[in-house]
TrEMBL record:
<dbReference type="InterPro" id="IPR016181">
    <property type="entry name" value="Acyl_CoA_acyltransferase"/>
</dbReference>
<feature type="domain" description="N-acetyltransferase">
    <location>
        <begin position="142"/>
        <end position="283"/>
    </location>
</feature>
<dbReference type="GO" id="GO:0005840">
    <property type="term" value="C:ribosome"/>
</dbReference>
<dbReference type="InterPro" id="IPR025289">
    <property type="entry name" value="DUF4081"/>
</dbReference>
<dbReference type="InterPro" id="IPR000182">
    <property type="entry name" value="GNAT_dom"/>
</dbReference>
<protein>
    <submittedName>
        <fullName>Ribosomal protein S18 acetylase RimI-like enzyme</fullName>
    </submittedName>
</protein>
<keyword id="KW-0689">Ribosomal protein</keyword>
<dbReference type="Pfam" id="PF13312">
    <property type="entry name" value="DUF4081"/>
</dbReference>
<dbReference type="Pfam" id="PF00583">
    <property type="entry name" value="Acetyltransf_1"/>
</dbReference>
<keyword id="KW-0687">Ribonucleoprotein</keyword>
<dbReference type="GO" id="GO:0016747">
    <property type="term" value="F:acyltransferase activity, transferring groups other than amino-acyl groups"/>
</dbReference>
């Protein structure tokens, strides 16, 4: 990797943690996923094991200029397109198996191009990054609440249905145990929100906080049961999600595919505004 980039990219160590935290703080909305992970790990240093996640860095005269989380997902932090290209060369030389590259659109697309990787399952080049910092003017959905441990079976079912619909394959294909632990962890952390149909006891709306930092929560997994679509649940449901999210951090964010115009209109009606553009490469 070092040779491939002619020394332009290095692996960060524990001593780089303060510098990485300062870089993450320059855009807390875009960087919330990495911020939450680094906060949990309490270090910018490499993870355990041969395939443990690492953070790559590019330095300038005044210290760390850009970084790139490199694990099962590749996530650039503060990278320009040129720096994204360097990270792509470095990641390609590492020959890692990854699930996705996501983050700032320009950097992500440059990383992908520079890796030389082929066979991407999907390239989502335009995903508005949206945020809200105050309660929605839409009335929150009555009955929306945090999931409880007893809700796990139906939350798992709804989450798997949403995953399959969104990505085109079952989440269990990548490891059923790992997926179930992810769902259970969101419930236990108080990061899973549901609304249940009082007649059928089925989950009719759900969403999760996929990443949480003191500054930002990022909403993921927004889903309305197909049989309940067209009933006006999405806007009030998201208003309830915002209400809960603002109890955890001053900003609630999400990103959405640009072709999902109905979802974008709903988010705008709730009060979200676009603050950036993401891209996601799925493998």
């Amino acid at each position: 990797m070092h040779r491939a980039t002619r020394g332009g990219v290095r692996v960060l160590g524990h001593g780089d943690t303060p510098a990485l935290e300062r870089l993450l703080a320059t855009d807390p909305v875009a960087n919330v996923s990495v911020s939450a992970t680094i906060r949990a790990r309490r270090s910018a240093g490499p993870g355990k094991g041969r395939n443990g996640a690492v953070v790559l860095g590019i330095d300038g005269d005044n210290g760390l200029l850009a970084a790139c989380w490199t694990g099962s997902n590749i996530i650039p932090v503060g990278a320009t397109p040129a720096q994204g290209e360097l990270f792509g060369v470095a990641v390609g030389a590492m020959r890692r198996r990854v699930a996705s590259i996501y983050g700032d659109a320009e950097a992500v697309l440059e990383i992908f191009d520079a890796t030389g990787w082929t066979g991407a399952r999907d390239v989502r080049a335009d995903q508005p990054l949206m945020a809200i910092t105050q309660a929605s003017g839409v009335q929150p959905l009555a009955g929306a609440r945090l999931s409880r441990s007893g809700d796990f079976p139906r939350v798992e079912q709804a989450s798997a249905a949403m995953f399959t619909e969104e990505l085109g394959f079952s989440p269990y294909a990548q490891g059923a145990g790992q997926y179930r632990e992810r769902v259970r962890g969101l419930i236990n952390a108080g990061h899973s929100i549901i609304a249940v149909d009082p007649e059928t006891s089925e989950i009719m709306f759900k969403a999760e906080f996929g990443a949480v930092s003191p500054e930002v929560v990022q909403v993921q997994g927004v889903w309305v049961r197909p049989s309940h679509r067209g009933r006006g649940l999405a806007g009030p449901g998201m208003a309830a999600v915002v209400e809960r999210g603002l109890q955890l951090a001053p900003t609630v964010s999400l990103y959405v595919n640009s072709y999902n115009t109905a979802a974008i209109r709903t988010y705008e009606r709730v009060g979200f505004t676009q603050v950036g553009t993401f891209a996601t490469i799925l493998f």
